[in-house]
Amino acid sequence: MKKIALSLVSLAALAGLAFGAHAADYPQKDKVITIVVPFAAGGPTDRVARDLSEALRKPLGGATIVVDNASGAGGSIGANKVARAAPDGYTLLLHHVGMATMPTLVRNIPFKVESDFEYLGMVNDVPMTLIGKPSLPASNFRELTTWIHQNKGKINLGNAGVGSASHLCGLLFQSAVKTDMVPVPYKGTGPAMTDLIGGQIDLMCDQSTNTTSQIEAKKVKAFAVTTAKRLTIPALKDLPTLQEVGLKDFQVTIWHGLYAPKGTPADVQKKINDALKIALKDPEFIKRQESLGAVVVSDKRMEPAEHKKFVLSEIAKWSPIIKAAGVYAD
To answer: Which segment of the chain is annotated as a signal peptide (predicted)?
Structure first.
């Protein structure tokens, strides 16, 4: 019995050494690191992921990094894919505020946000913009609110799907202006933006990373931003904040964070976090994000523990809002 017990201990020790050696060699040259994005290609989160993958390559020793779009069910399909992946650092998740809304929004969610992931650090904060179709008969927010109240129950409010950033912002906006609108969910921001430009829907509230170029090209009408202060980038600097035009305490910032499956070795987590901190200081990455209105994280939320603390506080913030709206992503 003692011999068997000793043998098992020895095998466990050898397995640990083997895994430790693997972790020390991370990332291996012949292995691809996949960043899973739980939304469609071409959308705002996808853009952040592709910019980040470029910035991470050098600090991760020239590793090959690819983006895998696995959309659906309020972002939970892609998140579950990562939660169930091998905890070796080669499958990561880039997710936005959906990490905080899924526990309430998605019925029978197959994982626990709080305990099935390793938190690797925050990436950015992205403001939202309230935009309308080009033919909308309003040129400023005051005229927009008049038009909204004149057309109660007739206004089509587009979003990128239940649980998306645009959906959440839209819920808050309807509540703030005390007017119900007709929600029009799409499979991603791309098709929603196409229909907004074409006039098939009336309004949308979406991330500046997706709307700035359309606003700049005057393909849509822009009415306000959701930040506490006005933005400084040229295309958005003249837009008022929603608080400024009378919607008290209306502030929505969509953030992005990086995650790994639970059980990823601590030293692999540290390597990724160290690389992330370098990537977040990359001038080209910062330039790309700032050109779209996003602010790259430079505070303590870069640290895994603070990242997790922040997400838990966001769960507490969004849960009552979603429950009050009575919406769910199946």
So the answer is: 1-23
Give CA–CA dist 286/284, Å, rounded.
5
CA distance 256 to 45: 8
Domains, the chain, in order of start with CATH, read 2-126+254-325 (3.40.190.150), 127-225 (3.40.190.10)
The letter for the amino acid at 150 is Q
CA trace torsion 323, 325, 40, 241 (10° rounding): -110
How much is the pTM?
0.80
Residue 1 pLDDT greater than 60, yes or no: no
